[in-house]
Fold:
Amino acid sequence: EDQVTQSPEALRLQEGESSSLNCSYTVSGLRGLFWYRQDPGKGPEFLFTLYSAGEEKEKERLKATLTKKESFLHITAPKPEDSATYLCAVQSGGSNYKLTFGKGTLLTVNP
Amino acid sequence: EAQVTQNPRYLITVTGKKLTVTCSQNMNHEYMSWYRQDPGLGLRQIYYSMNVEVTDKGDVPEGYKVSRKEKRNFPLILESPSPNQTSLYFCASSFGATRNEQFFGPGTRLTVL
Structure:
């Protein structure tokens, strides 16, 4: 069974204070790892897909990286508008195409 | 505008009264999915569909039914709702099962009394 563990559960940063969120996963062959952002009361919004170890993707202040066991979402010089819950999900290989999400990291960036 | 729509957005019902939550997408996506989100448990997949007439179970399918008769629509059916199905439900769609950047709907908050 696929498993996704995100840490920390909550993170509070000052504006401009860079940090990283962690997503550890266990799958029987990784088809893809996904990062989403979710604002309160809204549906998740897609950020990145990573397919293989060593891959990196960037978007504005966010950078996602992937190893064989975990993924990191690095946030550089965050702003208050980056405050949200960040979700990680995995899709394993084989004939099953279901997605498994982690419980998320609630990020708060104070001005 | 490309979007996933869900109806209703809010619903309060009673135990045992059958209900359907509709989901529609206008992006010609093949893959559609239903999730429930509960505090402390995160987002869990209920059912997914890879194309018309092709559906499969996610992690928490018990008590739910789905159908995919048309590419754009993927309704979620609760034949006999129970209080433990009180939750926030999201529908999502993507181009395909292997290109799975999903677009999510706005959510349906369901309360079963």
In short: The mean pLDDT of chain A is 95. Residues 62 and 75 of chain A are 5 Å apart (CA to CA). The two ends of chain A are 41 Å apart (CA to CA). The interface with chain B takes residues 31-32, 34, 36, 41-46, 49, 87, 89, 91, 96-104 of chain A (CB under 8 Å).
